[in-house]
Each structure stands twice: as structure tokens, then as C-alpha cells.
Amino acid sequence: MSTTSGRRGVFITFEGLDGSGKSTQMRLLAERLRSAGYDVFESVEPGGTPIGRQIRRILLHEDNTELAPTAELLLMFAARAQNVDQWILPALGEGKVVLSDRWTDSTMAYQGYGRGLGADPVLDVDRIACRGLVPNLTICIDIDPAVGLARARARATEKQDIEIRLEQEELAFFRRVREGYMQIASEEPRRFRLIDGDRTPELIAEDVWGAVNSALSGLGRSIQA
Length: 225
Description:
Shape: globular
Number of strands: 5
Strand order of the largest sheet: 2-3-1-4-5
Strand content: 5-15%
Radius of gyration: 17 Å
CATH class: Alpha Beta
Order of helices and strands: EHEHHEHHEHHEH
């Protein structure tokens, strides 16, 4: 029996540096939520829609090294705006638990802090693209930037991936990104939960499960499985 009938959906996002393991954790959570009877919709940013995937290729292709920070910011939100209208809001309206691999917190950390654009441009465009949509809970898997970058580069080499423009950045860039995540966590501790990623996936998953169950309980949607 569906647990979402007649209810507003729940929006949970996953954040973290490249190579943090956030995508694995989102997949594990989706499986566990479905086992508990929840109707789950999974998405990814950028690229959650067919149009978004075309924008993603521009954003991440290894040849596009001249992409300016402001253009990068706007393309990120162009993909997100399409996702909001095409998939996210309809899924929430149907009462689903929506999981997204990255959201505006990524843009704040990567473009606001990493690129040095600051918070104001990110928040200004977010108001247009997302129209007030804020996650109920954000899980951020925190790891050392050097570890994450090494993992991301090794993964890209193994897969012969061409969407590696960000992996070509210097370590200092990812350190600034992590500082951005730390700042968000200090400003929004109830929504934005930092979880230590320097452990086994199983241990991390248990902390993710605890944070999600607590958030759903606060919304009257506690997990029984």
C-alpha cells in the first residue's frame, strides 16, 4: 500500500565533493525507502531531464575549459529550472519522496565559493529557477578534498569519461568548495546534515537512514522498516 496518498511529497537532496560517495548513498537510501513502502523518484543535477542532459554535456565536457563562471552558474540553473517544472514539482505533487543527487547547495559551494561568485548571484537565480523550492533535508557526505579528487579522477580514467571538466581543477578549488559546504552547514544545521564520509559505505548509510527517518518523523511520515 502506498504511503504517499493524499500527502505532499518530501524533497531530500544529497551533496558532497566529487568522489564523496553521495551517489552511492542516495541509491542505497532509495532502495531502503522503497522497501519501506515509499514511492520514490530519483533525479540528478545537472541532467535530470533530457534537456538537462544536453546542458550537462556543455557544462562538464573536458573541452569546454573556457566556460566562464557566470555562464556556468546560469547553465546549472537552466538545467535545474527544467527539472523543477518537468519532474520535481509534479512528483512532489503526487506525494512522492523525491531524491536528488545535488541541488542549489552544490551551486552555492561550487560556483559561489569555488568560483568566487559569492552567495548573492546564486540566491538571485535560485529564486527564478526554483521558485522557492527548498529541500526538506539535505545530506552532505563530507570527505577530505584530496581524497575525493583522487577518487573522482581515478573513476573518470577507468570509465574513459569525457565529462571531466571539474575534475581538471586544482585541489585548492575543491578546498574552497568544502569551505562552502561547511558554511551552509553552520547557517542551516536543521536542514543541512554533515555526515562523515571517511568510513565504510554501510556505516555511512546507517547515519543517512537515521537522519532521514528523523526528518520524516518530523513531517509525520516516520519509517517503520
